[in-house]
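Reading is simple: each integer encodes one residue's backbone shape. An example follows:

___
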Amino acid sequence: MMGVLNHLSTLLLLLSLLPPALSHVVERFSDVTDCETFFLEGTTPNLPGILVGGKVQDQNRYKPICQKYKKTYMFATLYDTTNRIPVFSAYTFTGVGPRGTRPDTWMIEPQLDGGIEPVMGLEKQGVIYTHQAVNQDYDEYGKDKKVNKGHLFPKSFAHQPVNQDSTFTLTNAVPQVKTFNEGSWGKMECTVRKILRKQCLDNNGQPKAYVLTGAVPSVNNKLNNRVNIPDLLWTAYCCYNSKKKEWMAKAHWGENQEETNKQVLNPHTLSELYNMLKQHYPGGDVQVFPDQCPRGSSQKEREKSREREIGSGDISGKGLMTCDEDCKCVSL
């Protein structure tokens, strides 16, 4: 018996000495070096009341997740366990590779509900998941609310099939109104993707951009009386344009509501995004990217930005269309 206890004590001691890189749900994104790389210069967003100076303000509610799939960290998410939706997901865009097939079932994060597995995985029968959304929330109740699973880190922005598969975790999804997801939001994603591929090139001529996508929760609009249906979705990117030898950044956002007519999400400056987000996160400064990412632009530069979007394959002016998660758009 004493020998068993000694072995158990040794095992517990070894577990306590494991490096934080084996952790998945962490206290700070900086706890995992590979997780920091999804943020420009390792600098996390500043959202008053939620995340300030890299520190989560309410650690019982908001959980930083270093999204790990098949032994590799894929992206980072700050998850709201009360609303059961992500606050944001942060990821790097490194180009578009071969497209994989869509997984049949979305994954969950075991560690949010007492699991020990440091990787995303499928739901387990008999386990009650109280701190996150599950497939049943969407599959049985989404139709009544006219919503579907809306990626924050979209499959179309992931490079290889394994990266694409990793985006299918419910900690990376919000209930998104279907016509908004497949309408103006989907068209915007496809336009931005083409801009990143053509303009965000590093010194080796390879695509490289930092992207953050977030959701602003509603007051009390819920799916299955559990999962918050956000009022608004926003996204922003920042990258270095090696051809122009300058940093560039833009933002987009839209209300999560039914779309019946052709709608377009025009580009905004980071300064405009920060001012908008301040209305939802009062009490301090909002900042998504470090200072080298330009916050503003002149009216002339904004017009040129809009022209660049059109020149990059903007499909917003081609009538009412719908776009799938692989940026295949068809007329309605």
